Amino acid sequence: MDKNMQDELKKEAAKVAADKVQAGSVLGVGTGSTVKFFIDWLGERKEKEGLTLKHIVTTSSRSKKQLESYGFKVDELADVDEVDLTVDGADRVDSQLNGIKGGGAALTLEKNVAVNSKKNIWIVDESKVVDHLSGFKLPVEVLPVSCMQVKKRLEKEGLNPEFRMDGNKKLTTHYGNYILDLNISPIPVPNGLADYLDHTVGVVEHGLFLGICDEVIVAKSNGTIQEIKR
Ligand code: 5RP
What we know:
The protein has 230 residues and is α/β, with parallel strands linked by helices. It has helices at residues 3-20, 33-49, 61-69, 107-115, 147-156, 190-198; strands spanning 26-29, 55-58, 83-88, 92-93, 99-100, 117-125, 138-142, 161-163, 165-166, 169-170, 178-182, 203-206, 208-209, 215-219, 225-229. It contains six helices and 15 strands. The two termini are 27 Å apart. The relative contact order is 0.17. Bound molecules: ribulose-5-phosphate. Residues 30-34, 88-91, 101-107, 110 line the site of ribulose-5-phosphate.
């Protein structure tokens, strides 16, 4: 799919989600190019109908800056009891609404906001929808202090880790950690891999988001929108 077409679809999915946001609610806002459109639509609602929210939390400084540019005040997750709805993008989503996230390296905060939300909606174009999680390297955030040992361990497991780079340096996340992208496709047993990574010392978080998403809004190239609910 060409990038212009993909952007159009991202924009459409983002609009459907923005229209679902209830005034006065606590909103979580994710990260990425699809979410960027979502924030633009929120900005439009603020301008046209004076949309206000009780609290907004977000998962990256990029999204925070954009929200603030529309006059929204952004709070820290720690200052909010519970989030009513979080809207985020995804890199892949399967038929069970499990997903791979972290293409933008914001997975740790994304998962923290998501699991503290009553409802999670993902907005995607149709190229992200797959039968089984595949076609995208799985991001794993690791502590710098043990990154080489974790990499070796993951290599031994046949998970083909490679550091995500930023030029000729290892990319650092918001929390000062590194990302190892695992080159495995398809992921044969997502739950098993998630469990293994959850128990690997030095792994801060991983991009398998299993049983978290409640609804996916998919924009399709035939002009339709599909809303898939858990
Ligand atoms: C960032 C993410 C994003 O939601 C994911 O990468 C999708 O991004 P985009 O909307 O740009 O395709 O998980 O960590």
